[in-house]
Design goal:
single chain; alpha+beta; Lipocalin; elongated
Length: about 140
Amino acid sequence: MVTKAIIILGLILLSACREASEDISETDLIENDLEESDNAETNLLDPDLVETEWVLTSINGGPLLKGTNITLAFYPSELSGFAGCNGNGAPIEIHENNQIQIKEIASQAEGCLEPEGVLDQESDDTGDLDRLSTSL
């Protein structure tokens, strides 16, 4: 059975997300009919997630800084994203019950100064992913 809880937990940690061009809610995520697959045997990311990009619409219960964009894209063996100033990515492994293990997150080191607070916001976003990777 596909373990939706890990995916939902990650998306909840990223707050209220929406697919690149479509608004969705946490309820929609829970009710989404991800078909069961034999991914536990093949250790592949659920095909419904591959090559999808999610756009963060809030963080820590509040809106993103004006003019910033935070994304997370899923690929068969990695996550890739943009955290408001820097790109980031991490290899992933798929384990039994389709649990996603996020490996060490790599990030660019641009020192963006605008908008004010963007690096703090980025740190919160990357920290959420890092906490998720260590909780599995």
